[in-house]
Amino acid sequence: MPDTHDSPREPVPVRRILRLFRPHWRTLAVVGLLVGLSSLVSVASPFLLREVLDVALPQQRLGLLSLLIGGMIAVAVATSVFNVLQTYLSTRVGQHVMHGLRSAVYARLQRMSLAFFTRTRTGEVQSRIANDIGGMQSTVTSTATSLVSNVTTVVATVVAMLALDWRLTVVSLLLMPLFVWISRRVGSERKKITARRQQQLATMSSSVQESLSVSGILLGRTMGRSASLTDTFADESQRLARLEVESSMAGRWRMSTIQIVMAALPALIYWSAGVTSAFGVPMISLGTLVAFVTLQQTLFRPTMSLLQTGVELQSSLALFHRIFEYLDLPVDITEPTRPVALNPVRGEVRFDDVSFSYDGAEPTLEHVDLTVPAGGSLAIVGETGSGKTTLSYLVPRLYDVTGGAVTIDGVDVRELSFDTLARAVGVVSQETYLLHASVADNLRFAKPDATDDELVAAARAAQIHEHIAALPDGYDTLVGERGYRFSGGEKQRLAIARTILRDPPILVLDEATSALDTQTELAVQQAINDLAAGRTTITIAHRLSTVRDADQIVVLDRGRVAEGGTHEELLAEGGLYAALVDRDASPLATV
Fold first, then answer.
1. How open is the CA angle 401-403-405, to the nearest 5 degrees?
2. Which string of b and e fits 155-180 if b means at least 16 CB within 10 Å?
3. Which residue, among 316, 397, 311, 383, has the nearest Cα to 354 in the 3D structure?
4. Closest by Cα among 83, 277, 311, 72 to 179
C-alpha cells in the first residue's frame, strides 16, 4: 500500500510529467505559436500609444491618429482571438492528459491482486482517482500555456522596455530576483500543506464511504454509534478546514508584499524620470514615459502570474506524487507475455505442492497436493481460518501461490491469460456483490450479449425466476446499493444465476448456499448439481450436508490436508471429518 504518512518523499521527476504531454506535441506547438503571436501583438499597443501622444495629437494629424487607433483596436481583437483559440486547444490537451491519468490509475488498480484491496481502504482509492487527479485540473489544462504565454510576454515586454529606455528598465527589474526567491519559499510551503490536505481528503472519503454505505448505516444504527460517527466526521472535516485555511494563507503576506511593490513601481518610474532630468539628462518624452509605464503594467500581470504559477506547480507536485505512487505499484499478478491457449477446457484442476502466505506472514497453506479430475467434484471442509477460501481463490488466480503450482489441464494458471481463466473458472463467493443496476444488467455482467431467454433460463436454474417475475418491473427492477432490496438468499441465488449464465467448465462455490433457508438450499443445491454435471466443481462449505455426495472430500487443518476421501470413508476413519459431521448434526450447531 502506498505510504500515506508525512515522511520524506522522493521528488517527482519533471521529465516524467512532461512525458504525459508528449503525444500532444503538435497541438501544443500550435498553442505555443498562438501564445507567441498573442504576446508579440499585445506589445505593439504601447508603441502605438507613444505615437499617438508624441506625434498624432501634438501635430493634429487626424489620418495618422485614425490609423493608430485602428491599429490599437486590431491588436485587441487579434489578441482576444488568439487567446480563445489557445485556451480551447490547451484545455482539450489538458483534459486528454487527465483522462489518460484516470484511465491509467484505474487500469493499474484492476491489475492488482485481491490482497491489495484487503489492506487498502476503498475511500483512499476513490480519493486518488477523484480528488487528486481532479486537483491537478488547472495544472494540466492551463499551466503549460500560462507558462509559455507569460514567459513570451515577459521577454517581449522587457525587450520593448529596453527599446524605449534602458535606464528605466534597469530600475524596473532590480527587485525581480527577490520576488522569485519569495515565490519559491511560498511554493515549498504550499507543497507540504497540499500533501497533508489530500491525505485528509482521502481519510474523509474513506469515512464517508464506510459509514454512509448501507452496511455502514446498519452497523452505526444497530450499535448506537450514529452520534459518535457524526462527531468523528465533524473532527475530520474540521481538520480539513484548517488545512484549507493554511493552504490559502501560506505565503499570502509575502505575495501581497510583491503586489504592493509592483503596484508602486509606476510612481518610482515617474520619480526616476524627474530625477534624471533634474541632473541634466535629456527629458524623456511624455509618450515614451506613458508607453513605458503601460509596458511596465503589462509586465506586472505575467510576472505575478509566473510567480503564482511557480507556487501552484510546486503544490501540484504533491498531487503528481500521489498519482505516480499508484501508477508505480508493483503488480504481483501479471498476465503472461505468451499465454497458453486452452481450447477446449477439459477442467482438470491440480494443486501441486501448493503453499501460500499473505505478505510474508505465517503460511496459510502448506504443501497441499490435490487433484480434481475433469468433471469431478471436490469438497473442502475445515474449521474457520483453516485456509479453505484461500485455496479456492488460487484457482481463478485471485492470489498467486508462494510455492508449488495450480494447474488446469496440466497448464499452470500463471501461464493462462486472464480472459482464458475468466472463461474457464466461475466463482460464487459467500459475499455476494450486486451492482446498483437492474436485475437484467447484473445478470448480463457475466454475459453482455445474453438474450432474455438465456436470462430466464439461468434464473430458473437458480430458483429465482418466479421471484423476479413477481416484481413490479420484473427483470428491469433496480436491485439497489449492493443489492439491499433483496434478501440474503435472493442475492445469493442471483449470483448463482449469474455464474450459470457464464457457463464455465470449472465451478468454485465458496459457501454458495450459506445464506439460504433449508427449503431453498435444497432447491438451489439441486440446480447446482444439475449444472455441475460434466463440470469440475470445487465446493467450500460449513454445512456438510451440501458436500456429502462429492467425489472426494478433504479436511484442511491449519493450512494442511489432514484427511481425504469420500463421505463414507471419512466417517469410517472417525477423525476430524467425523467430528465435524457430529457437530454439524447437533441441535446446538450453528447453521
1. 65
2. ebbbebbeebbeebbebbeeeeeebe
3. 397
4. 311
Mean pLDDT for the stretch of residues 154-167: 75
Question: How many whole angstroms separate alpha carbon 322 and alpha carbon 17?
Answer: 13
Q: For the CA atoms of 334, 340, 342, 347, what is the dihedral angle to 10 degrees?
A: -60
Burial status of residue 50 (CB atoms within 10 A of its CB: 0-12, 13-18, 19 or more):
buried
- From the list 134, 143, 123, the residue with the least C-alpha distance to 98 is 134
Q: Say yes or no to pLDDT of 193 above 60.
A: yes
Q: How far apart are CA 427 and CA 165, in angstroms?
A: 79
Q: How far apart are CA 89 and CA 435, in angstroms?
A: 38
Instruction: Show the beta-strand stretches assigned E in 312-447.
Output: 349-356, 365-372, 377-382, 403-408, 411-412, 425-428
Spans of all domains in the chain = 1-162+308-332, 349-585
As a whole number, mean pLDDT of residues 352-360 equals 87
What is the CATH topology of the domain spanning 349-585?
A: Rossmann fold (3.40.50)
Q: Given this model, what pLDDT does residue 3 score? A: 46
Fold of 1-162+308-332: ABC transporter transmembrane region fold (1.20.1560)
Band of pLDDT at residue 587, cut at 50, 70 and 90: very low
What is the C-alpha to C-alpha distance for residues 128 and 109, in angstroms, rounded to an integer?
Answer: 11
Write down the pLDDT at residue 590. 41
Cα–Cα distance, 319 to 100 (Å, whole number): 15
Taking each helix axis as running N to C, give the angle between helix 25-51 and helix 62-110, from 0 to 180 degrees, rounded to the nearest 10: 160
Q: What is the Cα–Cα distance from 161 to 150, expressed in whole angstroms? A: 16
Return the residue matching grid coordinates 489530500: 198
What mean pLDDT comes out for the span 418-434?
83
Residue 292 clears pLDDT 50, i.e. is over it: yes
pLDDT at 265 over 50: yes
179 or 116, which is more confident? Answer: 116
CA distances (Å), origin 530, targets 31, 449, 494, 523, 527: 65, 24, 17, 11, 5
Separation between Cα atoms, residue 411 and residue 200, nearest integer Å: 46
Supply the pLDDT for residue 351.
95
Q: What is the CA radius of gyration of the chain?
A: 35
* Amino acid, single-letter form, for residue 79: T
Among 47-61, 69-83, 311-325, 490-504, which is the least confidently predicted range? 311-325
Per-chain mean pLDDT for the chain: 77
What letter represents residue 552's amino acid? Q
**What does the pLDDT read at residue 411?**
93
Q: Which helix (H) or strand (E) holds 470?
A: helix 465-470
Dihedral, CA atoms, 47, 259, 148, 321, nearest 10 degrees? 180
Q: Identify each DSSP E strand in 213-344 by its residue range.
A: none
Domains 1-162+308-332 and 349-585 share a fold: no
Average pLDDT on 435-453 reads 87
Q: What pTM was computed for the model?
A: 0.67
Query: What percentage of residues in the chain have a pLDDT greater than 90?
Result: 10
Per DSSP, helices labelled H in 338-427 are: 388-393, 418-424
